[in-house]
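hey m, so remember when u said the tokens were messed up on ur end? i reran from scratch. heres the input so u can diff it against urs
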Amino acid sequence: MPQVPQTFLDALAVRTWCGLALRALGRAREEIDAINVYPVADGDTGTNLYLTVESAATAVEAVFAGYEAGSAPAGSPSLADAAHAMAHGALIGARGNSGTILAQLLRGMAQVLAAGSDASHADAEGLRLALRHAADSARQAVAHPVEGTVLSVASAAADAAGGAEGDCGTIARAAYQGACVALAETPGQLAVLKRAGVVDAGGRGLVAVLAALVETFTGEVPGAPARSGSGTHPRGEPQECVPAQPAPADTCEDGGDGGPAFEVVYLLEAEDAAVARLRERLDALGDSLVVVGGDGLWNVHVHVDDAGAAVEAGVEAGRPYRIRITHFGADDVHARGGERPPRERAQRAVVAVVPGEGLAGLYAEAGATTVLARPGEPPASGELVEAVRRAHAREVVLLPNDADLRHTAAAAAEQARSEGIRVALIPTRSAVQGIAALAVHEPDRRFDEDVVSMTSAAGATRYAEVAVAERQSWTMAGICQAGDVLGLIDGDVAVIGADVTATAETVLDRMLAAGGELVTLVLGDEAPEGVAERLEARVREGYLAVDTVVYRGGRQGALLLIGVE
């Protein structure tokens, strides 16, 4: 269905732009992945940009849904509401080097749009200023800006927009055209791009995002035949961007010594002064440093050899979470790296969704590739597909660990299968079921036998959680009030109490009444001190031959997860 062109940049235009940008990046993702040679030739820039915009679009949709459902004040979202949501969504969902920079570009725009004199919309001048501030703030977020990258493309777009006169559509088209010219020039600015015969992948992604902005205001996709005029850039180049070609496999290296071995990304709650010190420390540890955000929340991205030191630096600065560490495999060629042989795919891997940093570490130690799901922030299917690709295996066992993720996981599995990966989806409904499945995983066994064994172990594990009710509601155990402690067994509320430990004991007794050999306890950060010791003592005293294991789950949402198998 054709989009209705937007005259001004208002909340609806932001929503439309995010949707169109997501669609454009979805179409261009594989092409962008194929030309990704800088700063690391790991073939994921298109995917990272897509996931970043997907998070931004989801946040904007949530704002509109809140107004439509009546949970927000009467009326419709303001431009500031939508812009803030877009920026925040991109910040918390930013992936990779280019995704992190794109998040800062969107944040820079939001800062100008939200500060405008008119709360309902921004005009052409507001759009010009927003594009300028976006480009400048993104450049400031990168420790050592490099020309021939997305930063150059963003700056050129802002320059072109600043010299244009007209409505928002005219400004957007000028920015797009300026970005196209700059993109075509990137191989001449960066040697690794010239040798590979490609344009910058991050810049190519930004061009797609700007094309979506043009479509938002004009209803036309740039590059399509113009209704009138010559269809050329101000400098005479054809309106459509130069198509990017995939990089030859043997031309991605840039000579010199090998680069850092790990990519470290995390969200960080910290004050500005602490972040300034963090930048200095991380800059000394590695390269490709990008720190974006503000107002107490930051997204940190860096390439290092000592991943632990990068995380420790974040701990000293504030509170890091959603930590993601990726090892650059033998087939990933760093910008400073030499030629490396392609990395052989593993035969089998496990990909699991986990609700907290503690469990992410536990699963990773067991060899699983993890996707961290923060409370209220379930992963999208694209993120699961990206994790399956990152596992780099012929066969993958997918553990969603959440009943609400079954459709998302099924869609991800289907997408991965279309790419030639054999995927088995085990419908685990809790992280404790995933732990049980992972405990019997044997990669040397036949795939079908391994899947059957893991499925059986998960199915034999009853699961429960203890949480605090957020609002009054009807449950299987009666009416609960906000603040009540809920004990859920196999997904249904079975106990309503006032004390966390007492409720947990009741839940555990009910679960063990049907028998069991092993109790697994996963403690959230907010669990009361001593609850694990009380539950362990109860098992020892009342249930002979039943063992107990305790794990720290981190910020997992539930106060306590319980598994009995």
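this time it looks ok to me. The first strand starts at residue 9 and ends at 10. if urs says something different then somethings off w ur setup not the seq
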